[in-house]
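Exercise: predict the fold of this chain.
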Amino acid sequence: MAYEPRFYREWVNAGRFQTFTVAIRETDLQIRAKRKLVSQAAALAEKARKEIEDYIRARPEFLTSLAPLPIPHDLSGLPFEMMRAATEYDVGPMAAVAGAIAEAVGRGLLRYSDEIIVENGGDIFMLLNRPAVMALYSGPDSPFTRRLLIEVDAPAQPVGVATSSGTIGHSLSFGKADAVVTLAGSAALADAAATALCNRIKQPQDIEPVLADEKKRGKLRGVLAVMGKSLGVWGDLRLHAA
């Protein structure tokens, strides 16, 4: 699996948080919490990975399928969360893996810190007592990169934020959007949705109908999509100039 340098982490203002990283094979987390929780986070990440890897050994198509798989009635845990998210957005289960692991680690760390941000390759799980402000990265040539800030409310309830791109990074995409950012109550759902919506955007004119469809679907809290000089936004995302 190709490694993508996490240069965007240098932009983070940790503020009142302790910031630390946990890397276990392909999983590379940056975590912000009230205290350093490296050993706890590593244990949670190992547990999440083992749960997914064990299921892949039992059902290899879970790793390779680009379409939803039938969900066994007795399935639970992270494989179930990934498959449920994938089914909602007609993608393969692994489209939700980064968000699912971020959320599993983040929820576990809430026992030690009442505020938490876990970022896993651009997919984020967070629970904060004040709004979060994030810089948009939509490629080095995009007119919006680092010029646009996205404000998200995350008080009292967990939030998942995911980003997918058809022009940046190594992740498989069938679309051409520079960036699609999704906001949901589940990080796995946000991850699967970002992949699916990015797949649908092949020209700037696709942005408006994709956002309109998501508004009708009602599964997400917000979407932002960028392609070239075109930008569309819907839902609980407030934009500010950087």
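Check your answer against the key: The helical segments are 38-58, 61-64, 77-89, 97-109, 187-200, 207-217.
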